[in-house]
UniProtKB/TrEMBL annotation:
This is ANTAR domain-containing protein. SUPFAM superfamilies: GAF domain-like. Keywords: Transcription, Transcription regulation. The lineage of its organism: Bacteria, Bacillati, Actinomycetota, Actinomycetes, Propionibacteriales. SMART domains: ANTAR. It holds the Pfam family GAF_2. It comes from Nocardioides pocheonensis. Coiled coil: none annotated. GO terms for molecular function: RNA binding. PROSITE patterns: ANTAR (PS50921). Residues 165-226 form the ANTAR domain.
Length: 237
């Protein structure tokens, strides 16, 4: 399995030097899962606290049109993982709800016929999810425990067939932008901490509060703080 281009870009943004190590680790996990589930065609790992998703696919072109399905038909997505539950979708079951019908039929035509979402817990808090996508309806049957062990997830919280449209791939495509935004915010916090002689936590609170009061996003304000700082630098020396 291979990472989608945006996942590679996000990893490079996070740490330009040892990119191969993280890519190799994700590839190794995905390939171990594929050894358990031969019909596996996609894996997405999401960190809820950082808002980042990394996605591996059997072939990138295989899923090129899946992202648009969610906007046409809607669907269950992965809300189960957000509340720490495990849900599974099997091809015959989702049609019980008419609002899922177009969603399920359209995504099935693009090879994803079953999904499995496993929550990743730490001290009873859901930190992230592992989302797996299968090309057959029973791809994940009987494999919850094995897959949870591979990814360090919670098998009892598994959710099946909740993301047949592969919406996590869309999340992964946004990862590079989110990484860049986080870097800008961290730079701005550092600038404020140094200039105003604040600790980092107080500087962050000051930045976010000022953005809220000014009616702009934290990222927009952070970008302006960095621009102003860089503009002053040449004259400072």
């Amino acid at each position: 399995m291979e990472p989608i281009p945006e996942t590679l870009a996000a990893i490079r943004e996070l740490d330009p030097q040892p990119t191969g190590n993280l890519v190799a680790h994700l590839t190794r996990l995905a390939n171990r899962a594929k050894a358990v589930v031969p019909d596996l065609v996609g894996v997405s790992l999401a960190r809820l606290d950082e808002g980042l998703t990394f996605t591996m696919v059997a072939t990138a072109s295989e899923f090129a049109v899946l992202d648009a399905i969610q906007y046409v038909a809607g669907g269950p997505c992965v809300e189960g993982a957000m509340v720490g539950e495990t849900r599974e979708f099997v091809g015959d079951d989702p049609l019980d709800e008419s609002r899922w019908q177009l969603f399920a039929q359209a995504t099935a035509a693009q090879a994803v016929q079953s999904t499995l979402t496993l929550p990743i817990l730490e001290e009873e808090q859901v930190l992230g999810t592992v989302n797996l996508y299968g090309a057959s309806r029973q791809a994940f049957g009987g494999h919850h425990e094995q897959l949870a062990e591979i990814f360090g997830a919670w098998a009892a919280g598994a959710v099946t067939n909740a993301d047949l449209s592969f919406t996590t791939r869309s999340e992964a495509q946004a990862a590079p932008r989110r990484v860049r935004e986080r870097v800008v915010v961290e730079m701005a916090i550092g600038i404020l901490a140094a200039q105003l002689r604040l600790d980092v936590d107080t500087a962050e609170d000051r930045l976010r509060d000022a953005a809220r009061r000014g009616g702009v996003s934290t990222v927009e304000l952070a970008e302006e703080v960095v621009r102003l700082h860089e503009r002053r630098q040449p004259g400072d020396g």
